[in-house]
């Protein structure tokens, strides 16, 4: 017999994950995963150290304290919050909960690589709607892709990897046209780096659309990628359904404590985001000086469309790891001046 028989056909069809190339240079600046360059916040370090001795105990199964802190932060209700082991795991769980066999999930493309994998693993079919040329979501296209077969719709703002964010006015008009039977997942992993007019106010939209689920993570702005925690906000009826299929003790004890401490460190978090936003502006200006125009990034990365292996290799030579998507483009995280300088040298070397 073939070992392949163990798996469902859609699992066998999943693309293998291709990790970024590691260069020969050992003094590497990692700009491939959109991590926060700052070390864990002081309050997080203190809280985690203090709790290490209690690791013999299971965590709070319902993450009561963290959920309460999140609902306080969003002026929402505890019953409208679900937490998970990173927001990627929540996306997987939500799709498992709503996708029927062969059911369609409409999503923008190119976007977060995890989306099509999660759709396929849930037994659904991804309907990919190409982005506009400027890297933004094609909202009319997404809307017209919704059919009777649609089980969910994904939005990513700011979009990974192009960095372009939706405008509140456009999103509000869009949501008003999506049938309420279709759950809409709005992935706001990079929302804290947005610095523009008419920015999305998802807390307001949640109140108007019971089919909307807003996803946030502690991995980016809060600098907790290593501890794994994210959350979803939605109508209590939606959230009750999602909690029902949550992994028992899915958010570990240290993650719960760290996320609460991070949420209560808003001043430092905003200051750090400000530094990263400024670094992004500097990098975009420096790239423009090389005649390289990037989409209007509102995230902690920029998208160099049309660049491929030549840039990836030049970056490795300069000691920078970046994320390349075939010959479509290269995504580079922003935050460290040294990393930006190396990227600019790499760009100059291949022009
Ligand atoms: C990083 C990222 C997430 C969150 O990842 P977790 O670490 O699993 O919380 C979610 N969506 C997008 C688009 C991301 O880039």
UniProtKB/TrEMBL annotation:
UniProt protein name: Histidinol-phosphate aminotransferase
Sites bearing N6-(pyridoxal phosphate)lysine, chain numbering: 220
One family name in Pfam for this protein: Aminotran_1_2
Classification via HAMAP family: HisC_aminotrans_2
Cofactor(s) this protein requires: pyridoxal 5'-phosphate
Residue stretches making up the Aminotransferase class I/classII large domain: 26-342
GO BP: any one term: L-histidine biosynthetic process
Catalytic activity: L-histidinol phosphate + 2-oxoglutarate = 3-(imidazol-4-yl)-2-oxopropyl phosphate + L-glutamate
